[in-house]
Amino acid sequence: MAYSASKSIISLAEGMPNEETFPFTEISIKLYDNSSFTLDKKELAAALQYIPTQGYPPLVQALREFQRRAHAPPLWESRDIVVVSGAQDGVSKVLEAVIGTGDPILVPDPCYPGVEIVVAPHQAEVITIPQDDDGPAPEILREILRSRKLSGKKMPKIMYINATGTNPTGIIIPLERRKEIYHIACEYNFLILDDDPYHFMHFEKEEPRSFLSLDTEGRVIRLDSFSKVVSSGIRVGFVTAAAPLVASVELHLQSSHLHAPTLSQVILYKLMKMWGYEGIMQHYMRLRCFYKERRDVIAALARKHLNGLVDFNVPKGGFFLWIKVRGIENTWKMMMQRGITEGVIMAPGAAFMTDTSKPCNAIRASFAKASYKDMDLAMERLAQLIRAELTKNYTIENVDSR
Ligand SMILES: Cc1ncc(COP(=O)(O)O)c(C=O)c1O
């Protein structure tokens, strides 16, 4: 109320501290192209203060305009946006709004582990949908839903999807598959939570069309994040969904951290305003080139060192190479024990399985940060690990039960 009230109203209503007591008097930010911006007195006061839960109003407006232009979502007037503290916050706020105790949820297998940690305390029934090279298999999804309905089981209200540059598999769900999954969602009446932090970090010629852009029934909840494209420490993401769903997330935010960090939101607003839509897209293009080169390097190194030992698809987006090891049922011990002692850390595939006790022959390697020299060494060490595992040519210490 205080935020939107006219200036003639005197408010003694809110419990905000007085900004004059804050020790900061100026914040200036320099960008990589040597341009810069400074938060003026008014902006700084706003940046250091409580704001409405939905987000810093000018940023919320800028994000609305951005979403409209980037995705042209149908039913735009019935949707809204709420700023959250990154995509993970969005995942947890949305799922907690939708999932009741013991409710079923559809997730791709393998899956980003940030989903399981949210739904496990609610004893959700996780229904896994196996993935092929194009993402969750629609015919299996449909069959699972059909037989659940026939047997009178509780039907899922939501499916979690990570459509572009999927973590951990690096795929992009093609448009036809997206349409098919959306169609099934309409048929069986469930929501789609599209956690899409790598949307602008694809390595294809064409921009992927988001689930939001296909959503003619208001059943897609879209999560965006600035983590991968501006800064992960800034902790800002945003949820775009049907207005009542956004209102639920807002209420939940009020009960947890009131709102996402104001300073981060004001900085992002200034950046968006300074760059404009075209400038943001140019920045995303620069990121794509940066990570695409890294993707090409890791793929070449994997071919060089792991030839004949593994299978992998070249990632189409995101940060990860998903390597399937031949002749090894489970990579867990190899990576978690021997990998560490041999000086190479990569994530074992079982970490992305809903049932982590099940064996998985895959490994997730990130190409986002390591130097090319380190990537080369890591692949060389991985090849040694795999060869030793295949011939059992090592000594076991501290065997982990997995
Ligand atoms: C698929 C997916 N969702 C969510 C997140 C969390 O991102 P954020 O930093 O925006 O919370 C990640 C981070 O790795 C991710 O890969």
Automatic annotation (TrEMBL):
Belongs to the class-I pyridoxal-phosphate-dependent aminotransferase family. One of its GO terms (biological process) is alpha-amino acid metabolic process. InterPro entries: Aminotransferase_I/II_large, Class-I_PLP-dep_aminotransf, PyrdxlP-dep_Trfase, PyrdxlP-dep_Trfase_major. Residues 47-382 form the Aminotransferase class I/classII large domain. Homodimer. One of its GO terms (molecular function) is pyridoxal phosphate binding. Its cofactor is pyridoxal 5'-phosphate. This is Kynurenine/alpha-aminoadipate aminotransferase mitochondrial. It comes from the Eukaryota. SUPFAM superfamilies: PLP-dependent transferases. It comes from Harpegnathos saltator (Jerdon's jumping ant). Keywords: Aminotransferase, Pyridoxal phosphate, Transferase.
